[in-house]
Design a protein that fits this description.
Blueprint (H helix, E strand, L loop, with lengths): L7 E5 L4 E6 L7 E3 L23 H22 L6 E5 L1 H10 L2 H6 E6 L7 H9 L2
Parallel strand pairs: 1-4, 4-5
Antiparallel strand pairs: 1-2, 2-3
Helix pairs in contact: 1-2
Length: about 130
């Protein structure tokens, strides 16, 4: 995939967010950005844990994903980026999608359902290039 120069790349799982800016022209070259402070956020459900509901760790991960979505939505609404590419663990990506604002969806240039939060920058860039 050709990632637009200047695109924001968000690499996220249920516990961690890493942001990059693409500085490459033809192939992705990722430059790390400061990690913003997240206040958490609410998950999809507010139900207590039981056999029919997610456990506490699942709710915490969903809440974190909702917090990441809120942050990215706010940045999209204030035009802090023109293009966004999201790399997220499959479950986290599904939760993120539930919270995307229309302004963010308009700036979304791609998604990769893969958990790469612990990987080196080069591995993330390669995965995006091969997406």
């Amino acid at each position: 995939m050709v990632l637009p120069k200047g695109a924001l790349v968000a690499v996220v799982d249920g516990e961690k967010l890493v942001l990059f800016k693409n500085t490459g022209d033809h192939a992705p070259e990722l430059t790390a950005l400061p990690t913003p402070d997240l206040n958490g956020g609410g998950g999809s459900g507010g139900h207590p844990s039981s056999a029919a509901n997610p456990d506490d760790s699942t709710q915490a991960e969903d809440g974190y994903a909702a917090g990441v979505a809120a942050l990215l939505n706010q940045q999209a609404l204030t035009n802090q980026f023109d293009d966004l590419f999201v790399v997220a663990a499959p479950k986290t990506l599904g939760e993120l999608r539930k919270h995307w604002h229309k302004a963010l969806q308009a700036k979304l240039v791609g998604e990769l359902a893969k958990d790469l939060t612990g990987q080196p920058t080069d591995a993330i860039a390669t995965a995006i290039a091969n997406a």
